[in-house]
Fold this sequence. Notes:
InterPro entries: CellSynth/LPSAsmb/PSIAsmb, TPR-like_helical_dom_sf, TPR_rpt. Keywords: Repeat, TPR repeat. The chain is mostly helical. The chain has a domain at 132-201: Serine Threonine Protein Phosphatase 5, Tetratricopeptide repeat. Helices cover 76% and strands 1% of the residues. It is built from 25 helices and two strands. The protein has helices at residues 3-12, 16-29, 32-44, 48-61, 66-78, 82-90, 99-112, 116-129, 134-146, 150-162, 173-183, 187-194, 204-216, 220-233, 240-250, 254-267, 272-284, 288-301, 306-318, 322-334, 340-352, 356-370, 374-387, 390-403, 408-416; strands spanning 167-168, 171-172. The chain has a two-stranded antiparallel sheet. Helix 1 (3-12) packs antiparallel against helix 2 (16-29), helix 14 runs antiparallel to helix 15 (240-250) and helix 24 (390-403) runs antiparallel to helix 25 (408-416).
Amino acid sequence: MSYSQTALDELEGGQLDAFKKSFKQALNNDSDDLLYSLAEELYSLGFSSYSETIYQQLSKKYPNDDGLKINLAELAIDADKDDQALNYLSQVSQQSPEYVRSLMVAADLYQTQGLFEISEQKLLEAQNLAPDEPVIEFAIAEFYFTTRHYRKAINNYLDLIKSGTLEMSSVNLVERLGVSYAEIGKFEQALGYLEQIKPVHMNSDVKFELAFTYFSLKNYQKAIETFEDLRDSDPQYSSLYPYLADSLVNQKRVDEALKVIQEGISIDQFNEKIWQKAGQIALMAGEDELSLHYLKKGQEIAPDDMEILTLLSDWYVSHQRHSDNLKLLEPILADHVFDAHLAYNLALSYQATGNVKKAAENYEIANHELADNPDFLKHAALFYRQTGEVDQERDYLKKYLALVPGDMEMASLYEEDL
């Protein structure tokens, strides 16, 4: 038995001191082929430093072996020694049989550094040199998938699947293709692929994508079943709760939806979107004060989230709590943040609290984007009627009646001003 095999046996048996001794003997006595195999085995077992020792020794003996340089580069990358890795890779010339492999390793390195354009260039250069190599096409597909360029990823995954490759490096390509279609909003195509995946092969992310695809196609019953399956297998997957709750709402099961979103809160109290959805559903369930509590919690977590801010402002306006609404929104004004809907809410609250000047200012700001909103136009018309500004009143009434010609009460007001 070789020293290399003895060392591996000792390592497997947990005899570390004996392994270290046999490892040294292997370095001094075993053939280069045995040492190379030992290095690969040790790397797969997570003993990279010993692999590096072997590759360094072999590299001194075979200084022109580019494969050894690339192996050392990969070890350097694993150890976060990027400069050292680049140094090894730079020694591989374009004429080397190992050049394509060096490009692949370099692409991985640049991607980990966030240099995505350079990483893509390396991958495309490798593909240009070896256009029929499926490993390269797979690497490009995975690059586009992880960088969220799903349309590009789809083309590569489709090419691989058409060639008969359904799995590579333990990655299910049908799953990747289905997820990619879902991410770009092509839900019918996504469903065709995602439904092909056997349940035993579905991880939490794929279950979520399948459920989300059913949700997006308005197949709420299937969405509920799949989200519930995900909840049962992985209750900590907090992103599912708002969508499961929404699916239940669409099935007119509001009370169940409220319980689900409250369950989501117990799972993840720092997810503002769960608090937001809880606020919306509590309002639907007639739990107005609970709705306010949930929306305020969401706003505490994410004070710059405009959706939550708008929902909270709407709550204050609809419940005639105009002072609270002004307290909420006036700091936004100070930061010169423009939003037509919030300006409309400010106008209503300033009007209700007797600040005519600021109410008028905000009605005019909101008018830039809400000129086709009947509720806004009606409120603005009545505001200007109250302040005696007939021209502005008639202008808003005219726009309103063009949208709601059957409102006889507002039509009669318009006729009065002729």
